[in-house]
Write a structure and sequence with these properties.
With 146 residues, the chain is of the alpha+beta class. The chain has helices at 47-69, 109-123, 125-130; strands at residues 3-7, 15-19, 24-27, 73-85, 93-105, 135-144. The protein is built from three helices and six strands. Pfam families: OsmC.
């Protein structure tokens, strides 16, 4: 897997990532908090927000895949991530809570919980990396639809 990240120029702290699969992702920094500090223009997510979003995508992908493989009629899956970071550099994630909302028809509660657990403990490579510095927790809501 490859990715190239390029600084967009001296007027800010924006970067563009070009992925091996041909996709582009823009990142930007917060505006400078004091004169003379480098700052962004707040035009795109922060790099660490993209790490958190990628983790959410990785685990949601796992949950949907596991449920489909188990022949569950999953219709929706979202995960809200709430994270805390260290106050000193490097400002790694120290706590991440993932709240899953999974919807579908006749979903078996134990299968949904098992899919989330398997993603968390076995399959999600992003979570596996982040749990080296962050306490990871999760909760689940299931919405049955007709």
């Amino acid at each position: 897997m490859q990715c190239t990240v390029t600084w967009e120029g001296e007027d800010g702290m924006a970067f563009t990532a070009h992925t091996e699969t041909g996709h582009t992702l823009r990142m930007d920094g917060a505006p400078a908090s004091s004169p003379g500090e480098p700052g962004g223009h707040n035009l795109a997510p922060r790099p660490m927000e993209t790490v958190l979003a990628g983790t959410g995508g990785c685990t949601a992908y796992d949950v949907v895949y596991i449920l489909k493989k188990a022949r569950q009629d999953v219709r929706g899956c979202s995960v809200r991530l709430e994270a805390e970071r260290a106050t000193t550099d490097p400002k790694v994630f120290t706590r991440i809570h993932m709240h899953f909302t999974v919807s579908g028809k006749d979903l078996r509660t134990e299968m949904v919980h098992r899919a989330v657990e398997l993603s968390h403990t076995k399959y999600c490579s992003a979570s596996a990396m982040l749990e080296k510095t962050a306490a990871m927790t999760y909760s689940v809501d299931i919405a049955q639809v007709e």
